[in-house]
């Protein structure tokens, strides 16, 4: 099995190492870098528990090889909180009771973040479409929709740029 | 005198404590556990549903870089571990010896230095199979010409039958049916509740770490019942129980899937004991859906005898249960079909008779309760479908027929024909509230107008009654262990509390709601109470979280333990205030002298005194433990109304409204209760319209990944509307009944009833779930209702 050198920026920190060509990005992030907030739920890109942001786009990291992340800017759930201040999405998920077991939550928040970059005034239907690639077995989605709307309103009010350039976004 | 009473929490939408770690990605799930030198296990599985194993060749696998060992059934057999007991008393193969009984059955366990090397090893194990005839249809299981699936069973005359079980009054039921045939009405319906899977987003897995020096085995386990699992591991593996520690850390959803013990756990433990290194085994989604505990799979034939005016008299139910290759149902010992005989539901039947035949087929083992208290969903589905069938037969409104037949509020405690004692209820109030909320009469008018225009709209009702919170221990046990539960409270000198409970959260929010129970009992803030669970070395013994039993059982233990703390605090207060205990009065957070409110001591002051100035006649410290054996189950209930529109071109069912009125007794945290209801409704929608696992004639599984097994996304899930009535349980210390499963139990039949209601005028009486567009379109086409 060939190995390749890989260098990527995750949550503003540069990580590098030698990896097997077949190593999945989610395993590099979780098992090698030990950023375990990103989860695995299905192996078939169906559930979205592994969603991270790669160069500004929500990406399911269970169907991307680690080597494909070479030179990319990545953001994971661990990058949401800045200087001890929760991101509006984190606040929204807590305030609106948008999580129960917490397993889908990181992927759900990352998908929502990528979506809100382009739409800070979403309708319920737009939010539902945006998160439709992320499965939640606990909440029935109603409160997740509310949480995303909460974040949108807060981000709009503070004119916060969702993903700053240095933090792995567009 | 006015005193400052701190927020005490009960009934408040207190925000969840556990969120702090989850929203930061700092949860600690089993697959997050990584130990130095840890190895990885992966499983070789059978491609055949039924075959003899002629040979297992591991030589090539052992040459794969990184592979350290391959464990086969024969290896386990030598250690006496090839078979493990199941909860209902069957034995299940850990690794197959000479025969495989279902597709994806475990055949060998590869141990390697990485996940990837283990997978390479699995691919290199060569198994020589001789395929055998496959039994897929449970209705043929007892035919003479089908293969005998379990020659390993020790029965005198082995057959594919697992059990025949019956309950109720057969003669009285028969007589009522004879009377109804002559002078009343009898309705009958066959229905199938398909095999489905709980499919929590986190699959099952473990990390087993055996320390050869100390002889201690630690297992991080996706377990809904860590103590029960510890005891079972001790009994099965012969390990001393005090040297087994099960840690059930954060669990990514359970829904019944994480109640049984699976072969992968046993193999990882054996591998760790053998290698002396920690071994991780995490199943992938296909393994989860195709080999771990399924739910339902009940073929039901039900009949109601009633008077001509619609007054129900008797219920008769025969069920064929498909348990797959091994009977690995999760069910209390005395009740092989669980609590299925709650099937008289919310209605006042005088007579009932139920029998269940369970059989083996070449399918994965199981029969666990998918977000349900031991087969209550099957029971509720059948009675709610049958009530509609009766209503249409008599040309009565389904709501009116229910109101006519409900057990009346004054009849509680109510003894059912199948010998349950319903604790409390007010079924009319719940249904009437739901009807008012949706303007039921208005909807019926709209439906009539639409029918006249050729449009299809349906209104479905489900007025379900649940039965949850097992024990009492004298009737309910898991592998002999009585189904009590527990709480231990330690009040620290500064008045802050650490509580540990015998149940385990998988998202229910115990760290918050159990803190609220204690805070309410002691008159303090939930902020000052931390709740721990899931570690068998520290938590008191409990039977785990499933069957909605946490709040009814461990919640009661928690309230009672807090009252023990308060009782001791009262003795200390009497000593400090130099009065008799009878002279003291309690207000939230404080004892004071009767008639002299300024003379008092707060619970914090009393806690401090317990460690610094304790009465000489009392033990120092302020702690309490309670093991609670409930006197009865609790009976949550509700009424759901679903409104659907059907597309005549595609057969697609659109859920326009879904109104859920739930009554779970006293509410600890309305925010958490509503969240549970939203999630439960979604897991009721799922089998009603999307989820099912099927098999082809060779036993090949369909529905073994999330592209075939359709979990509702945000697009299919409607905007749930909720409301409540509150009828406390009379026997629970705080009146709570439990709610996590009610909506999953109650919702499917509301949806099914709505679809049938839309088509009842053309003679449709039943459609088996999942109600797919194809099924609906086929009916539309047959009835000449399909449009281009």
Q: What does this 3D model show about the protein?
A:
- The complex is a heterodimer of chains A (about 170) and B (about 800).
- Chain A has about 170 residues and is an alpha+beta fold.
- Chain A has 2 domains: about 5-80, Beta-grasp domain (Ubiquitin-like (UB roll)); about 90-160, DNA polymerase, domain 1, CATH 1.10.150.
- Chain A is about 30% helix and about 15% strand.
- Chain A has helices at about 25-30, 90-95, 105-115, 125-130, 140-160, and strands spanning about 5-10, 15-20, 50-55, 55-60, 75.
- A 5-stranded mixed β-sheet of chain A has the order 2-1-5-3-4, with helices on one face.
- In chain A, a hairpin with a 2-residue loop joins strand 3 and strand 4.
- In chain A, helix 2 packs antiparallel against helix 5.
- The chains are: A alpha+beta (about 170), B alpha+beta (about 800).
- Chains A and B meet through helix 1, helix 2, helix 3, helix 4 and helix 5 of A and helix 1 and helix 16 of B.
Q: Which structural traits does this protein have?
A:
heterodimer; A: 170 residues; alpha+beta; Ubiquitin-like (UB roll); DNA polymerase, domain 1; 2 domains; five-stranded mixed beta sheet; 5 helices; 5 strands; 16% strand; globular; disordered C terminus; B: 788 residues; Aldehyde Oxidoreductase, domain 4; Aldehyde Oxidoreductase, domain 3; seven-stranded mixed beta sheet; 28% helix; disordered N terminus
